[in-house]
Amino acid sequence: MRRLKVVVIGAGGxxxxxxxxxxxxxxxxxxxxRHGTQLLRVDLDVPAAIDALFDAVPDIDAVVSTAASVPxxxxxxxxxxxxxxxxxxxxxxxxxxxxxxxxxxxxGGSVTLTGGRFDGxxxxxxxxxxxxxxxxxxxxxxxxxxxxxxxVNVVAPxxxxxxxxxxGLQGPRGTPVHEVARLYVAAVEGAMSGQALRxxx
Length: 201
Known about the structure:
Elements: E1 5-9, H1 14-23, E2 28-33, E3 40-41, H2 47-56, E4 62-65, H3 80-104, E5 110-114, H4 126-142, E6 151-155, H5 161-167, H6 177-189, E7 196-197
Parallel strand pairs: 1-2, 1-4, 2-3, 4-5, 5-6, 6-7
Helix pairs in contact: 1-6, 2-3, 3-4
């Protein structure tokens, strides 16, 4: 396939670094992060920052977001304000990214977002479950309406082994990050749209 110009948001994180490495084998990758000195910066909580990113990096073929997360919070401690804040970047921030990408990407381009999925009940995970389910539903419904042959998919990684190791957590085994990164590559290079991609175990 032809060499693509791909923006990876969240490039400083565990998954983001792996996605940059995998995509960088065949494509031009622009690494973007919320923090850091050597990476371009964008905060998905700030729509104007997303606009500024597209202004700074024109002629993009694909955008990958690996940046969004929702902190764990027990249901009994989740206030209205806390729930709205938890959902903002993971759900609404990534939706804002897709909305802007739809008018800025090259024809036939793609957007790959990050959701999540875990087996069973995750204590403190109710807000995250809401964001992830909402994102998958939004992507499935929005995909057929995208203009100019654009595509959108969401990758739903579960536990990443390197993250579990870094946190010193014993328990469920995670998926090696290089395997997770391949899902993002498949979304960028493939033809699917409106799909939730996840590791099949």
